[in-house]
Design a protein that fits this description.
This protein is 61% helix and 4% strand. It is mainly alpha-helical. The chain folds into two domains: 2-128 and 167-284, Fic-like fold (Orthogonal Bundle), CATH 1.10.3290; 300-359, Arc Repressor Mutant, subunit A (Orthogonal Bundle). Helix 2 (43-64) packs parallel to helix 9 (232-238), helix 9 packs across helix 11 and helix 13 (318-325) crosses helix 14. The chain is elongated, with a radius of gyration of 23 Å. The termini are far apart.
């Protein structure tokens, strides 16, 4: 057995090293293979892979917090923040931009210490000061806690209560451990940090998103790389039921987290396997645009093609094209006929409305 570290006010998480040794080694092996493949990618292809991964991370993590985001808006926000495109920030995208800011901060600044102020700024970015003020005014807010003591921070500019009282001391121990240069493998530490944070639940909401950011932060340390090429958070969302089942069971097992660690490693293994598909898509997309770089296309056509090249699981019909390009069915049909004439699309089957299309060579 092994434990986090000795401290009278810290939970003593224990796990069986013998059971976890081989699953962790398998994850590390797959991780090495992925980064070996990344080395063969051109710079623009790496950027495309990072863009796809972060878009997936943010979209799926938001779903876990019941915050559905439009995937295309997330992609635009991430691309802008990574300096890949230049567009104006719109009011409707503010919430998405803020979550993108949090995830990118956690990953790109993975070596920066975690502080109470940083956690508070992340939470404030997610929900704004109005949410914190609402919590302070709610008569039932403090009834959830076993203590009256609150943590007050001036990080946002004026005194506010942020952490729920029972979690205040626990958060302090958590950040001390998080920043501690201990001998834990960084993947092991990421698994513990996620579990520990969602168990403390210091905020009324947004804990899953922030736990996701902390997970990515430690995985970036594990990779020693400020770029993400696999989406652990998307895989967690895919296994959402199992996630909550193993979480609940672990929290009731007197701090033996062996089963949680096994689930986390297996989840990461699947995330790394999925990256093979992502990288193949990135390479095929790059080759597609290289082949057709001199062909004149309108904005709708580029938008729809990029979406389809990214892997839309659906039969391609004019109605689907209209939905992706946000245009009328007639306009969609004209765009598609134009692409057929230019040798980019072809018709698969005949039959009026049931006619399907495909991208040639993809």
């Amino acid at each position: 057995m092994y434990f986090v570290y000795k401290h009278k006010n810290c939970p003593v998480f224990i796990w069986d090293n013998e059971i976890l040794l081989n699953p962790l080694a398998d994850v590390r092996y797959r991780q090495g293979r992925i980064f070996g493949r990344i080395e063969s990618l051109a710079l623009d292809q790496r950027k495309e892979a990072v863009l796809e991964t972060l878009t997936l991370d943010i979209t799926k993590c938001a779903e876990m917090e019941n915050m559905p985001f439009d995937e295309e808006k997330v992609r635009i926000s991430v691309a802008r923040k990574l300096g890949l495109i230049r567009t104006k920030i719109t009011e409707s995208a503010t919430e998405i931009d803020n979550m993108a800011e949090i995830m990118i901060d956690a990953i790109q600044n993975y070596s920066t210490p975690l502080t109470d102020e940083r956690l508070i700024l992340w939470h404030s970015a997610l929900f704004g000061n109005e949410q914190n003020e609402k919590s302070e005014k709610d008569d039932n807010w403090l009834s959830k806690f076993t203590k009256i003591k609150q943590v007050v921070s001036k990080a946002i500019g004026k005194d506010k209560s942020y952490f729920r009282a029972a979690a205040a001391k626990e958060i302090s121990h958590f950040t001390d451990w998080f920043n501690n240069e201990n001998k834990l493998d960084a993947i092991v530490k990421a698994a513990i940090a996620h579990l520990w944070f969602v168990t403390i639940r210091p905020f009324d909401n947004g804990n899953t998103v922030i736990a996701g950011a902390l997970t990515n932060m430690l995985l970036a340390r594990a990779d020693n790389n400020p770029q993400r090429f696999y989406s652990m958070l998307a895989q967690m969302q895919t296994e959402r039921k199992q996630y909550y089942d193993v979480l609940k069971k672990t929290q009731n097992e007197n701090f033996d987290i062996t089963n949680w660690m096994l689930w986390f490693f297996n989840c990461m293994k699947k995330a790394l396997k999925s990256t093979d598909t992502t990288l193949l898509s990135v390479l095929k997309k790059a080759e597609f645009w290289k082949t057709h770089d001199k062909i004149e296309l309108n904005k709708r056509q580029r938008l729809a093609l990029n979406k389809l090249l990214g892997g839309v699981d659906s039969k391609l019909q004019s109605s689907k094209w209209a939905q992706i390009a946000k245009c009328s069915s007639d306009t969609a049909l004209r765009d598609m006929k134009d692409l057929i004439a230019k040798g980019i699309l072809r018709q698969k089957t005949q039959g009026g409305r049931s006619t399907n299309y495909e991208i040639i060579g993809f």
